[in-house]
Each structure stands twice: as C-alpha cells, then as structure tokens.
Records
---
Amino acid sequence: MAVQRTFSIIKPDATKRNLTGAIAAKFEESGLRIVASKRIQMTLAQAETFYGVHSERPFFGELCEFMISEPIVVQVLEGEDAIAKNREVMGATNPADAAAGTIRKEFALSIGENSVHGSDAPETAAEEIAFFFSGLELVG
Ligand code: DAT
Ligand code: MG
C-alpha cells in the first residue's frame, strides 16, 4: 500500500473538553503525520453539505447541529495506508463497540458525540480534503 492522505475532524465534544492535543498525539503515535491543521467553526450550510450523504438518516439534523455547536479542528493525515490506519485508530462509530486504546473508546461520549471524523475511502478523502483546504495549505 502506498502513502495516502486522509481527512480528519476533531469534533466539538473533543475540542470543548480540551482534547485536541491528546487526539493529535494518538494520530502521531500510530505513525500518521499531521500535514495540515486548522481550527474553524462550520456554518450549518457547510455541515449539511459535508454530511450530505447522511441527509436521509433520522439523526441528520442532530448531527449537523452538533457539528456547528463548537469549533472543530480539521486536519490532513498522511502515511502508509492512512485511510484504513486512521479508521483503526479512531475505533468503531459507537464507542460502546470501539476497541481498547482507540480514540473513540477513550474519549467519545456517545454514538453521536464521538470525538472524530475520518474519511472512509480514497474518493471521499480527496473530496473532503478539497472541501476544507486549498492547494496552498497542503505542503508535503
Ligand atoms: P463514522 O463517523 O464512523 O464514519 P458514519 O459515517 O456512519 O460513521 O456516521 C457519521 C456520523 O453520524 C457518526 O460519526 C455519528 C453520526 N451517527 C451515525 N450513526 C448514528 C446514530 N445511529 N445515531 C446518532 N448519530 C449517528
Ligand atoms: Mg463516515
């Protein structure tokens, strides 16, 4: 597997509890490099676009309101097999199902307030990186 880039969000529940550094350390300990990082707060329209794939799900409104409730930290992570590696470090969507040592097991509050987002495939990683970062912000 080649070197890949993936997109990550440290979500409002985590920024609010001052866990940005603790979560970034988990990425770095796993071998992922943080090659871009910024703290922003999304508008509702941006959250609805970002999570558009979930627009028909019953939790969509709650998800978008949560994602704009506090600042978030958006990051690009790079490394060998970065997309799958990040999903592994994140743990299962529901922290009750997440493996020991994962970010969601250690930090998530619930299936909704689950501390991190990570891209699930090369196509979504490319789309999500481009949604939040310009070419000028992406240095090697
Ligand atoms: P993941 O974030 O692990 O990729 P997903 O893409 O299926 O999971 O869902 C996106 C987010 O939506 C997830 O991180 C939290 C929220 N979510 C998913 N399922 C939910 C549910 N059953 N109830 C409340 N929120 C949910
Ligand atoms: Mg997902």
---
Amino acid sequence: EKGGYEHFMLKEIHEQPAVIKDTFRGRLLSDKGLIKMAGIEDNLQKFTNAKRIIVVACGTSWHAGLVGEYMIEEFARIPVEVEYASEFRYRNPIINEDDVVIAISQSGETADTLAAIKLAKEKGAFVFGVCNVVGSSISRETHAGAYTHAGPEIGVASTKAFTTQITVLALIALRLAEAKGTMSKSEYLRNLLELELIPEKVEEALKEDANIIKIAEIYKDSTNCLYLGRGFNYPVALEGALKLKEISYIHAEGYPAAEMKHGPIALIDEQMPVIVIAPNQNHYDKVVSNIQEIKARSGKIIAVVSKGDTQVKALADHIIEMPESTEALTSIIATIPLQLLSYHIAVMRECNVDQPRNLAKSVTVE
Ligand code: M6R
C-alpha cells in the first residue's frame, strides 16, 4: 500500500502533483475563465456580504489558513482573521451573523475545531468546512463546504493535505475576487492559468530530491533550526519548522524573516542552519538582506530559490531550486523541498517517520 515507497509520508509527498490536480478538477475551468464550486456558488452572497471571514483550525491546517488569509485579503479584499480553534472556543470571541467562519481540517475530527464550529453556529455565523475526509464530523457539522481531494493521508505528518488545502483556499479566494470585482480580469485569468500549472511545477520541485538528501546529510545532527519566509511564504516557514520538529525531533522555529532582528538573531552562530524561502518575487531584496545579516553572524543558509537565481546563490551555503508561479501560488511549490528535507533528516536519524512519538493522526480529545 506504500506504492513502492519506504514510508507513507514519502508516498504522500510524491502524490501531490496528482492530488492537487484532483482538487481543482471540475472546479477550475480556465479556458472559460470560471471557478465552480457548489458550496461557494450556493452561498455566494454570504461570502460577498461578509464583513469578515474567520478561519479556525489547528496545526498544519492552521498554517494553510494563514496562506488563505493572505490570499482572500489580497484577492477579494475581505478582512480575514485566523485563529487556533482551541483559543477561539475558550476566549468568548466576538462573532456576528454577518461573519463567515471557515473551518479547515484534514481529518474532520479535530475536537477543538469541531467545538469552535459549534460555537460559531450558536452565534449565528455561517460556517464553511474545508475537509479531506468525506463524511467526517466536521463536514457534517458545517453549513456547506468544499472537500480537498488529497485521498487518504496515513502519515501523521500532514503533507498533501496542506497543499490541497491551499489549493481549495486559492479557488475560493479567486472566486470571491471575481464576484466582488476586486481583481483585474487579466490578473484573475493569469492566476487560473498558473493554478493549472501547479501540479507540473510541484513535480519539478520534487526533482531536487538528490540535492536535498545531500543537504540533509550535512545538517541531520543539528539540534536547532530556523525557518524564515515573508508574505505568502511566512506560513510556509511555520509549516516547514513544524514538519521538522514533529518527525525528526529537532527543535525548529518558523518566523517572518523580518522578525529575526527582534529576537531570534541572538541564536545565530555557525551551528545554526537557517532555511530561507527566497523566491525572486516581491520581497526578494528584503530577504537578501536578511540572508546577509545571518551570514554576518556565521549562520548556515539553506535557501529555497527560483530556478536560475544568482544573487542568493552567491550568499547561501546551499540552494534548492524551484519553479516560480504567482507570489501566492509559489507557497505551494516552496512547501515541497521543506517536506523532503524533514523527511530525509528524520529517516537519517532513524525516527519513526509515519508515526512520530506522542502524536496521533487525529486529535479527537482536547
Ligand atoms: O485533521 P486536522 O487537519 O484537523 O489536524 C490538525 C492538526 O492536528 C494536524 O495538522 C497536525 O498538526 C499534524 N500532525 C501536522 O503535521
């Protein structure tokens, strides 16, 4: 059942080109310039009239929610808040009838997310689910929803669920942008075409595997690791750090790159690998200067860069290349090398990759 792979996690990493395609199949009609998702179409006014959208989730799904926040705000100009379901449910949150709540969950069984949904419903909000497991508790408890089509995810560390969640959120953000007229037609169409190309770009990103194995060899005995990214890649940095800590038990932290100088820079020395997501996009120059700051303190840089990059390459200790897309969608591609890096390091440390200690696939108790 592992399809010839050594672990479910590796199989699931490699399934991403196919399952991302499954997730937009029948929904993304780029030749017609349309996005069609029944759960959104049937409730379009609820979304377009929403004063704000609140995303509730835990763990990796919460990271996907952060990418969703950036996408929905950027494309559809609707204010979005992203909350840990556990905090939301217990802090007497302000929820109104014109709020839309999006609950994201791979398993659809996470206790805190389920409780957050019940609370939001009691307060009169419209609740939309983004789940992977069909017929799960969360998919039944929400008013409407859109499934990710990642297929069964067995590895406890979430991989393909994350990238398909971002895919669904991109579809939602783009559909809302079209409905609200907040994006130019050409920008909208470009995003549809770019989304369609994501599976093949993910496939290309997977080809860096041999290079990533070499990097993993060098850093497998590290005790700490930092992950930095800006904009849409900030949540990707958080997710990269979570992946490393949960399967390899190396302490890792993700930060928005600019937060470095507000504390974490004190940790930098020659023992500290810093993984920087540095595609040649909007924040490139800023990320380059963050890299210079780290190099000046003898930190080791592993940079995830756009194919053909030269500037970061000249500064970094190691580079991992990836194809680019739009700024928003590059977050999906940049996730791939970080998954592979964690995977290989964990295997080299002889960790139980598919079933890390102390973790359960679905957290049905709070
Ligand atoms: O099933 P869910 O998406 O609701 O699960 C949420 C988290 O428990 C989950 O993402 C967890 O953080 C994973 N171990 C991450 O790899």
